[in-house]
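I am still getting used to backbone structure tokens and would like to learn alongside you. Please make up or recall a protein chain and show it to me in full. Would you write everything just below, so we can both look at the same thing?
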Amino acid sequence: MRKPGRADDPQRLDNQLCFAVYSAAHAFGRAYRAMLSHHDLTYPQYLVLLVLWEEEGLTVKDIGTKLFLDSGTLTPLLKRLEAAGQVRRVRDRADERQVSIFLTEKGRSLKGKMECLPLDVGGMTGLDMEARRTLLETLAGMRGELHERANSDATVRAAG
């Protein structure tokens, strides 16, 4: 009989890959929160700015796709960023349902002010740059596989 709590127990918390990723994400959030609070930003708002610093004028749907967020989550974030004067939302004249997001000068200026953030937080991990790149590639691949499987499972359920 298997003794509960053994190191090879697949239901032991320490053996859960999802818990390791979840708890690491939580730790990242805490690290970023401390640094972002100086700019009155939350981590999800910072992620929106990262997307817009790469490409402005994206629709809410496009930003949501990049961040894996639905519009119900993203819209309040964008409204808060707009109220803070960091972005502006522009409705498409041809299709009022489409809203494109643009940075304001204030939003653009934050990029330079927060340039060191990723390196600072990355340095807190104890991993060198090569290990961080390898981990990033591994996690991106894992995320892609999980999304692909979830989407194919949803398609099968919808067809069945």
The longest strand covers residues 87-91. The mean pLDDT is 91. Residues 127-160 form one domain.
